[in-house]
Structure formats: C-alpha cells, structure tokens
Amino acid sequence: MPDSKYRFLIIKIMAFLMLAAIVARLFSLQIIDGESYLATSNARLNTTIVNKAERGDILDRYGNTLVTNETGYSVTLRKTDADDAELNNIISKTVEIIYNTGNRTVDTLPISEFAPYRFTFEDSNGDGSSEDEKAAWFADNKYLNEYISADMDAADVLFAYQSIYNVEGAFDSEHTRRIIGIRYEADVMGYSSSNPITIASDVSIDAVTQLKELQDSLRGVSVTEEYIRTYTKPGFATHILGRIGSISSDEYEERRDEGYSINDMIGKQGIEAWAESYLRGEDGTSGTTTVIDGEEVVLTEDVDPVPGNYVMLTIDSDLQSTLEQSLESTIRSIGNDCDAGAGVVLDVNTGDCLAIASYPTYDMSRFDEDYSELLNDERNPMVNRAVSGLYSPGSTFKPLVAIAGLQTGAVSLNEQIECTGIYSYYEDYQPTCWIWSESHLTHGQQNVTQAIENSCNVFFYELGRRLGIDTLDEYAKKFGLGENTGIELYEETAGHMASPEYKKEVVSNVIDSEWFGGDTLQAAIGQSYSLFTPVQLADYCATIANGGTRYKVNLIKSIRSSVDGSLIEEFTPQTEEEVDIDEETMQRIHDGMKRVVDDGSASSIFDGYPIQVGGKTGTAQLGSGSNNAIFIAFAPFDDPEIAIAVVLEHGVRGSNAGRVARDVFDQYFFGGSQNAIATSQPQATGAAGTEEDIIARPEDTAVPSGSGTGLMR
Fold this sequence. Notes:
Elements: H1 2-32, H2 34-45, E1 46-51, E2 58-59, E3 65-77, H3 84-100, H4 129-140, H5 154-164, H6 173-189, E4 197-200, H7 205-213, E5 221-231, H8 238-241, E6 243-246, H9 249-255, E7 265-269, H10 270-274, H11 276-279, E8 284-290, E9 296-298, E10 310-313, H12 317-334, E11 340-347, E12 353-359, H13 367-376, H14 385-388, H15 398-408, E13 417-419, H16 434-439, E14 444-446, H17 448-454, H18 457-467, H19 469-478, H20 500-506, H21 517-524, H22 534-545, E15 549-551, E16 556-560, E17 567-570, E18 575-578, H23 583-598, H24 603-606, E19 614-620, E20 628-635, E21 642-649, H25 654-670, H26 691-696
Helix pairs in contact: 3-6, 12-25, 15-18, 15-23, 17-23, 18-21
C-alpha cells in the first residue's frame, strides 16, 4: 500500500511539472514573445505587397531627358530566426556572389573598405563638417561606452563590430569587412521579417541567376525587380543632377511618417536631393490574406503606384557641355598646379542658370565602383565648387567698389586719383599697385572708368579708404556677395565678405584680430578675408549687366506631370534686390568693363571678337602655389543676355579664365561655330615688366592683409 501511495505521489508530481511546463510555454508564447509571433503571423496572413513607384525624370530646359529609370534587380535581406553563425554564413555566400559577378553591396558603415582602415565621413563643403559628422555618429552609436568609445580609430571600431556580430571563420579581412557592413546596415535600419533591407542594387543577371540557384540555402535573401536610376549622358552635369542612395537610419526616422520604408532610395545630393518631394512617386499596394487551405483572398482594392513628377531644369545642355569641356581643356592646358575650377552662366534678365560646372568631376553611373578612389583624390572631385567653393574675388570686386564710390559721392564721375605706384596714406603700411610691383611704372591720373580698365590698385585703395569697410560690406550684400543665391542645391555655401566681425571670428590673437586701415585697403581690391562662390560672382555680374536687379538664381524651370506633361509648378523670376544705381554711374562701369575686354587684360582673348563683351579679370593670391584666376563677363555689351563667372584654381591670371568665357559665348551666340576650345594658348608667367606682360596683366598682386605686413588702424 505504501508503495502504491508513493507511486501515486510521483505521478502527481510529474503531472504537475508537465502542467507547469505547458503553462510556462504558453506564457512565453502569449506574453513574452506574443507580439513577435503575432507580427510573424500577420506577415504570413496579411501580406501587403508594395508596388514601387517610378521616380520622375530630370529634364533640361528644352525637355531633353538627363536622368531616367530602367528596370533592374536588387538583393534584399529580411530577418529570420537564424543565429549569428548562420546569418553570417548566409551573408558571406551572398556577398561572395555579388562581388564575384562584378557588383557591389550597399555599405553605409563609415569606415573604408580596405586596410589601412580610416573613417569616411565626407567633408563635401570643405568646412570641417566631416569632424562634426564623426562626432555625431559616435554620439548616436547604440554601442557607445559598451563596445565602442569615441577615441577609437577606425580599425578598433571595425574590430568591435566584428565582436558584436560574432563574425568568425576563415574570412579574409576584405570579406570580413563586407559582412560587417551588411550586419551594420541591418542593425541600424532595424530590419524585420516583413521589412527587408536592400543590400545590393542594380545587380547583373549573372548574380541574379546564381542567387536564385542557392535560394533554398540563403534564408532571408531575395531578388526583386526595381527601378534603377540611369543617366543619358554619363558624366554630364554630375554635381548638379546629384545622386540617390539607400535611405539612412536618420532619414528613415525623419520621413517614416511620409510613407518611406527602410529599403527605399532617396535623393542624397544635387537636384535629386533638393527636388526629392517632386521626384518621388507614391507607392501602390495589394493586400492579401493566406487562409488555412492556402487560398489568397484580397482584402483591399489594388492601389496603383503614382510615378514621380518630371523636374525641368533651366540648364541648356549644349551650353553645359561647352562649359564642362572648356573648363577641362583650359585647366589641362595651363598645367602645373592648375587642377580645378568652376564656372556659372546666368540669364541676366531672369536669374536662370543656363550652365554650371565644377572640375574635376566624375561619372555618377560609376559612383559606387569609384567611391574609394574619389574619396582619396586630393582634388576633391565630389565637391561642387560652383556653389560651395570659396574664393577671393581679386580685381573682379573693383566694379562694385566703383559703384559704391559713385553712388555715395565718395568719388565723382570725372574725378581723377593719381597712381604713384605706392599708396602712402599710412606711414607703416604702404601697399603697391601691380604695375609698380612688376615694372616700377605708374598709371598716373585715373578716373573711375580708367581705373577699372587698368585695374589700378592705388585708385581702389584710396576709394576703399574713403568708403570704409561698413559701406563696402553694405554694397557687397546688395550684390549678393557673401549671401546665398537661392539656387536649388543644398550644397550651396554662403561665404563671407571681409569685416571686423568676421576677422575677430577667424583670428585668435587679440591684437591681430583688430581691424586696421590696411584691412580695408585689401578688401577694396578683392583680397583680405572676402571669400565668395562662383555662383555669387555670376549673380553679381548679372546684376551689373542688367542695371541693378539682382535675381534669385534658378536651377529649376518647372515641375511637370510625368503622366501627361501638364504644368504643376512654374519657377518664375524672383527679384532679391533692386540696387539703386544711377544711369550715368552704370554707363561708366560698363565702359570700364568694355575697355578691359577691348584694350586691357582680356584683350588677347577677345581680339576681333564679333560680339562686344564687358568683363573684368581678377587674380587672387594664395598662401602657396600659383594665383587663382577669376573672370566675370556679360554679353552682348549693348543689350546683355548672359553673364558668366569662371574661377580656375592656380590658373595664374584672370585672362586664362577668360578663355572659358569665350568658348561659352561662342556656343551661345554662334552655336559653337566660333568655338576655340583647346586652341588658344594659356598665358604663362612671364618676365615682369615686359610690354606684353603689362598689357596682359593689369591685376592686383598686393600682399593680402594678415600676411605679416604691418597694418595701420
């Protein structure tokens, strides 16, 4: 009997334990993991099939297609119940196929692909923003202070991620880096079973075939059709058209309420970024429910995708091609340390940007393949110099000083100021005129028109002193120098006009940070701390050309429906400033700029040219290397239509930049029939004081303030 009771007790205990185990499992299924299993169930039973919308095309001003789409294939990865070892193995096989077939994976981990490893935060504006981005990345990293510290170098961070993701096995360092890149992407994007991430775009048919053959062993990996961005003219207007890329975790958090998903593509730079809301379409959907017998039942009506709109630019493709080709050929022919530049062409009566180029450039269709090389190129080809390159204007600033002087009464129309070669107003700072520095000659008596023609430094030293820095700053602002132009590019940098306030910001020494009289003299000839963008210089020139109306710079002409071409939005001319300029003042300034082209520093470039042109050369001194070359011009002289600004880094002298302007005028007025691309020879540095050099180079060469020369307050 006791044995029977004992056996019964054992049975009761076993039954209790089994019941407890069942209850615990049910608790786990329903309470602890219930939400996860519900999501998985809903993913199986209530599947929303997303039909991606086609992105809108980008067109030039005449409707020619510049960017469009074609159907391609992408590789996606969704979350499964695979552990780290299995997941890493799946990713390894997938990555191997992708790279062995000549394709690349999406990789947003900001560490270089190859050793020696370094961080790859971009400094696209050249303003130190890469360090800010690096600090922000560390601050937002969820593994900070646990696995990662802000003082780690790139190699240590990569090693930390290798440990976090348990990436082990017989992988070489390059392959390991790629696996970590995919794991990082999945991690930061928060992928799930119903929300996959894109790990490769526009993959080849060879890759698609191999991946499908191994589909059973690559759990979570899928190949899907997608729209691929294509460029009708590879390498054309790269900095302006911009690019798209996989949405980042930050972008996704900001835009998820707008209907973006974690595997969406989004505009990253250029027009693709600025016009994202116009170009992006509305995705369509199809809802289905899978019942027990496998039958699919439609829950909702299909919603067709709505393609994005067409964005029509103000760009003239022929003029754009000419500007790009001339920039490259001119820079190459100058040689030596001249290796970069930019140019902008505007309609003086509307502010429309007809052409805008930056050199060096690159082929956007090969961006992924060439990224590492582009990143390591010391010339910074990914920087859009036309809107974010900052340059001293040199003597191209002198027409503005002349306008300010005449309008304020600081100088009269017929007043003459004597150039003695040396400006001796201050005892301890006596800068020279360029003609004195080169040949110990002087310009003698100069009125305002002659001073512009001869680019007489002494005249503008005196006029700048009379005006004072505050008035110079006021007029610079009126003409948009140091101000955003409004061009539809997020990459635009405002730059700055020299001022006492700005000097205090950039000069740490208290005594040296004071504003001296010599600072004003240098600002008056376009040196000192003034730094402007080529697009600002073009807008400034256009304002002079049209008599004083400064327009917002337009890069977009209109938005049109991709369905029927109907007009959705038109970007009309917008006046930013009406500069009060007397007619006689304007005539004197125009005459001075005409003389620069007819008889002055740009005459060798425009000798015998069939269209009259007004222009101004400039030479901006640098800390080392050859001077920068700047040229602004407008044409036709009597009834201006277009204005241009060209900057050549280390281009020696402004007349060299004038060659690019002539090529652009050839194309605009004659369809290229007068085209002189790569035919005229650059002016090299000649012996100082020769007649040819004096005629070809009436530009300032004074030492910039802050270079060690004593300045008087």
